[in-house]
Design brief:
146 residues, alpha+beta, four-stranded antiparallel β-sheet, two-stranded antiparallel sheet, 3 helices
Length: 146
């Protein structure tokens, strides 16, 4: 029993998108957990959570002594996140049947040399698009404030 080639390609694309989303979610979690403490504030309409920046005291030489400076941890953190810039997928398959509209295929593994003369290969490349210009401007403005 085969799988429709269009469904297989769509599922591979979805898997790449989900992997990229998981990486971005993890980066946000690390940023918030290492740079902020979470607190709860009780109000009339229930509790609301808020984040307080984690700060470090740095001693800077000034005027013959040390001047203490409270620096937020997020100012000391690297702000670039891990991203999937490019993913290459090589797909090997046998065409099982075609009804003129949909092509059914059977996926083959890399080391499987059976039917090696009738195996088709398809290479796909997924690339991350650069952020929208508006988003890039907001990020640059935010980083300037740090």
């Amino acid at each position: 029993m085969g799988i429709a080639l269009s469904k297989l390609m769509k599922d591979i694309g979805t898997a790449v998108q989900n992997a990229n989303a998981a990486i971005e979610e993890r980066a946000v979690d690390v940023y918030l957990n290492q740079g902020y403490r979470r607190g709860e504030e009780m109000g009339e309409d229930g509790g609301t959570s808020f984040y307080t920046p984690v700060t470090y005291t740095l001693g800077l030489p000034a005027g013959g002594g040390n001047k203490k400076l409270e620096v937020p941890a997020t100012a000391l953190m690297h702000h670039s996140t891990l991203q999937l810039e490019q993913v290459n997928v090589k797909l090997r398959f046998l065409i099982e049947e075609s009804d003129g509209e949909e092509v059914e295929v059977k996926v083959k593994s890399e080391g499987d040399d059976s039917d090696m003369y009738s195996v088709s290969e398809l290479s796909m490349q997924f690339r991350t698009a650069p952020p929208a210009e508006g988003t890039a401007r907001v990020e640059n403005h935010h980083l300037r404030a740090l």
